[in-house]
Amino acid sequence: MASSEGTAGARRNRLPRRARSVNKGRSSPVSARTRRGLRALMATCLGVALTITPVAAGPAAADTVPAPADDPFYKPPTPLPDGRPGDIIRSRASAFTLQPIRKTPRADVKSWQVLYRSQSATGEDIAVSGTVLVPTKPWTGTGGRPLLSYAVGTRGIGDSCAPSYTLSQGTDYEGLIISAALDKGWAVAVTDMQGLGTPGMHTYEVGRAQGKAVLDIARAAQRLPGTGLNEQTPVGVWGYSQGGTSAGWAAELAASYAPELNLKGVVAGGVPADLIAVAENLEGSATVALAFLAAVGYDAAYPELKLESYLNDAGRKLLASSQDICLASVDGITTVIGTAFSKFTDYATVNPLTTETWRRRLNENKLGSTRPSAPVLQVHGRIDAIIPFAQAETLRKNWCALGADLTWKVYPLAGHAPGIVRQVPDALSFLSDRFAGLPAQSNC
After folding, report:
1. Whether the predicted model's global pTM rises above the 0.85 cut
2. What spans are recorded as compositionally biased (Low complexity) (predicted)?
């Protein structure tokens, strides 16, 4: 999810020349390339916000890869082959590029697109697509090369928004963050999550599905031949906004769902921890479309919710027109503008949030009931107008009460979009320290 602040807000949140570590007294220099990238990322995020914001296939050039809806690679075999979560169904060489016009791949990074096994929120076996990236330069740090499972933020529910596609086209707004992680020498795995690329509707903001997808692509990266990764590989998780939900759920699920992963640390930023609170905040706002997308995502994950049965004519029209929407597109812009400041009852005969059926499923995906099994850095912008600060602070209190090793950091003058940039140096520093074996400094 992305928010817009004015140019004055952008100036207030400009990154310092030397980024300070989360841990007091430590500093973590950021490379010149990363600093330039972060400045560009700020512009990109604000731009998106203002407009919203088992065979191996052969390699293909970035500019000849079809969109996922037209690419047989994304269509899993039926039935799925036997296996376990994280097993590779198919893979192919791909490209990682930051250049949307020339599409020149980063020459120092090996890239694969993968289709791998995972599970839905209700435990069904599913296929999920994603990307695995490994720097070609040998790892010279402590221990083995770390693996970062990076959870992306909101981009929409259409298949063409899938990160495995946009990262190969140079059009992913988080490509610069992923590039900064690669500059650290880390391998990076990026899940598309359920239904984003693969057939079926994307289960947008269904945390239990997203958390599993994030953990399973780490498993997939370890099992993919040619990566140099294995089960001893140190693993980190990082995500912001929708990615913050995914990261938070990965932190809560890891001990029970993927106990073999060598999870060292998790960064969860701008976290929509309580979807009821988030939806109530979004209703009547400029970005209420995000709540509508979440309703579609929950309906896809839990068919008994029967979203369409609640809709009036306007709601059915909106649902029909939003099946393949990407926010950073003409259709996305039109939808956001067209629904801005509306109420749920403008599109529904009954507000689903008032029903026990919907509230039960939303509360099943509320973070804060399980202690994360690894140190967590949780960050949030104090003036975030999209993802309420209060519900994030409640998550912090709940995790601390459970005994979490939690570092909590607030950016006083940051809204939602500036927060994604403000967190980057802190996240890189936090994960670097965890990969180096240094203890976190909890401030619960």
Report:
1. yes
2. 60-71
